[in-house]
Amino acid sequence: MNARKIPDIIIGRLPVYLRALQRMADMGLKTTSSQELGEHVGISAAQIRKDISQFGEFGKQGTGYSIEYLIEQLREILKVDRIWDVVVIGAGDMGHAVVNYQGFNDRGFHIVAIFDNDKEKVGHEIGKFKVEDAETMIERIKSMGVKVAMLAVPAAAAQAAADQLVQAGVRAILNYAPISLNVPNNVKVQYIDPSIHLQRMTFYL
Amino acid sequence: MNARKIPDIIIGRLPVYLRALQRMADMGLKTTSSQELGEHVGISAAQIRKDISQFGEFGKQGTGYSIEYLIEQLREILKVDRIWDVVVIGAGDMGHAVVNYQGFNDRGFHIVAIFDNDKEKVGHEIGKFKVEDAETMIERIKSMGVKVAMLAVPAAAAQAAADQLVQAGVRAILNYAPISLNVPNNVKVQYIDPSIHLQRMTFYL
DNA sequence: TAGATTGTTAATCGATTAACAATC
DNA sequence: TAGATTGTTAATCGATTAACAATC
User: Fold this and answer.
1) Considering only CB atoms, which chain A residues are within 8 Å of B84?
2) Do B150 and B93 lie in a common domain?
């Protein structure tokens, strides 16, 4: 498949479709249509059909999509038909919240370690984890073969930490630090900054 | 101000520019160019100039933009030249993290109350706040005139809570629940779901 | 003046929508 | 069959980039 030429914007919507479909499955539904799914996620039926059809013909005329089958296909496309090990960098409030968050279960991710460069924090327990020394981070990540990280350190420390993650072989960084990161082209970054999200709404008030 | 319709996608980038500019200001810089700002945020210089020029002529040929002046203008455009009161719904792990988060300071937001519908949690202290009963939520929000909310309740409770927020006059919801919300057109929603963000990256691994 | 950089126009590129034949 | 809904094409709409005159 020519995964290379699928626009980012389409990839960005697939997890939203997947989440809605999983919710429908939990409610015991068996099939849905582009129309119905579109109403759930706030996207036009035409766009949903077009997005999905980039990857194959998963629907049936007249009846729509099998929810179970479409979930299976989307999980495979997004590569969350497996469990990804994830490391957390930064054992502050946000690091704590992320480690204790239950929402990664069943969505393809499993936290395996948390690091901090503050010697005071190293050794402390967070949930079932002991905070590890950031000095050991690169070697530990390499030896575990971890490709996905969540970065929850202060802005001033974020770029240096990201550089280390890249060096350790991490290819996907979910960045909670309020700063834009510079990384090589083959490394993906997603940003979560609540202030940014709030500021995207106040314009309209 | 210009009555012309500004595309959402441009509004979405302005907070990122603002954050980068504030960082430059903190470092003592006085002026910048579209080129330099673009390198910081990973956006082309042409696009930055085009975005900014939607709102006025804030730069000078030959020298670029005054950082302080551009910050001032962007804050005004985004309406964060003031402090918005914010309520938090849900006193679970995420509610805790959000209330304790220091990153809203200086970015236009101030948390004023936290609510939960679990009577066990009502009255407990989180930071300097006492968790309030969700039954009182609508009246409290109305009387305080709060327009911005952060929703950190389980998926199953999120739509009902959002309906209440709308009823109370809230116009902007930052939703941490893993579900798409249905709200009237005049209410804005932004979504934060770490699993969604992670799934947007695994495709490329 | 000489060099730098904006604001803006036109061209290009990409995304969304509408429509409908195919077909379950 | 009759009705429903997909997958796809073509048209429309919108966003990005390139280029450069204006001008600090």
Assistant:
1) 198, 202
2) yes
pLDDT of residue B3: 43
Q: Do A93 and B101 touch (CB under 8 A)?
A: yes
In terms of domains, do A68 and A107 share one?
no
- Whether residues B59 and B110 share a domain: the answer is no
CATH code (residue A13): 1.10.10.10
The pLDDT tens digits for B6-20 are 999 999 999 999 999
Nearest Cβ partner for A172 among B94, B180, B201: B201
The CB-based long-range contact list for A95-98 (8 Å cut-off, 24+ gap) reads: A95/A126, A95/A152, A96/A126, A96/B97, A97/B93, A97/B94, A97/B96, A97/B97, A98/A150, A98/A152, A98/A176, A98/B194
CA angle B139, B140, B146 (to 5 degrees): 110
Structure tokens at B138: 């609508």
Residue environment code for A24-41, b if the CB has 16+ CB neighbours within 10 A, otherwise e: beeeeeebbbbebbbbbe
Question: Domain span at residue B47?
Answer: 8-77
Of B31, B50, B77, the one marking the end of a domain is B77
Q: What are phi and psi of B14, to 5 degrees?
A: -60, -45
Work out the number of other CB atoms within 10 angstroms of the CB of residue A23. Answer: 17
How many domains does chain A fold into?
A: 2
For range B165-185, the mean pLDDT: 97
Distance in angstroms: CA A197, C1' C4? 35
CA distances from B169 to B190, B192, B203 (A): 17, 22, 39
How large is the average pLDDT for residues A164-171?
98
The CB density around residue A202, as the number of other CB atoms within 10 Å, is 23
